[in-house]
Amino acid sequence: MHLSYLSAAARPGDVVRVQADADRVGGSLAFVSVRIARVDEASGLETVVALGRHTKYVKGTAPAERG
Strands (DSSP E) along the chain, which ranges? Predict the structure, then answer.
């Protein structure tokens, strides 16, 4: 797992948006990324707080159905 902190952390009461994606899922490994951003409610602008990447061993699990 790799994390990059890009801005001051969100504080209690802040609105945050979390976007997580399975970038690639293969036969035994899945590559996942996440983006966490603090949202300014007045303007709607986002400030990225952290980015993360994770490689997960998934051998023997069935892939999720897309639809």
Answer: 2-5, 15-25, 29-39, 46-57
> Taking the model in full, what pTM does it have?
0.76
Long-range Cβ contacts of 6-13 (<8 Å, 24+ apart): 6/48, 6/49, 6/50, 6/51, 7/38, 7/47, 7/48, 7/49, 7/50, 8/49, 9/49, 10/36, 10/38, 10/49
Amino acid at 20: A
* pLDDT tens by residue, 24-45: 998 899 999 999 999 999 998 9
Domains in the chain (CATH in brackets) are: 2-57 (3.10.129.10)
- As a dihedral over the C-alpha atoms of residue 32, residue 35, residue 36, residue 41, rounded to 10 degrees, the angle is -140
